[in-house]
Design a protein that fits this description.
The chain has 98 residues and is of the alpha+beta class. Helices cover 37% and strands 31% of the residues. It is built from four helices and four strands; from the N terminus they run βαββααβα. A hairpin with a 7-residue loop joins strand 2 and strand 3. It starts with a strand and ends with a helix.
Length: 98
C-alpha cells in the first residue's frame, strides 16, 4: 500500500494547539493502531508552525480523509493540508517501509 506525506500548516494560535494537543495525539495514536500513521511530528520551532505525517493509505483521498477527524482540524488549528505520495527508496527506514 502506498505511503503519503501529509503536511499540516498550523494557524498561529499556539495556545489553542497546546490545549487540544492531548486529543490530537490520542487521535494520531489510534491511527497508529490502525496501521495508517507510520510516524508523525511537528516541525522544529525555527520553521513555520506545522507538522509532517507519513500515512499508509490506499490512495491520496484516503490519506486526506484520515485527517478529517483530527482534533486540530476540527478546532480550526490547521490552515492547510497537503498530501503527496512518497516513495521511500534508500536507507534503513525505506527498508522497513517496503
Amino acid at each position: 500500500m502506498p505511503i503519503y506525506a501529509v503536511t499540516y500548516t498550523y494557524t498561529d494560535d499556539s495556545a489553542a494547539r497546546d490545549a487540544v494537543r492531548p486529543a490530537h495525539r490520542e487521535f494520531l495514536g489510534a491511527l497508529i493502531e490502525q496501521g495508517i500513521n507510520l510516524v508523525s511530528g511537528p516541525f522544529a520551532e525555527e520553521y513555520a508552525p506545522g507538522a509532517l505525517l507519513l500515512f499508509r493509505a490506499a490512495d491520496k483521498q484516503s490519506a486526506l480523509a484520515a485527517t478529517e477527524k483530527d482534533p486540530f482540524r476540527l478546532n480550526g488549528l490547521v490552515s492547510d493540508v497537503s498530501v503527496r505520495e512518497w516513495i521511500p527508496v534508500l536507507g534503513p527506514l525505506a527498508d522497513q517501509l517496503s
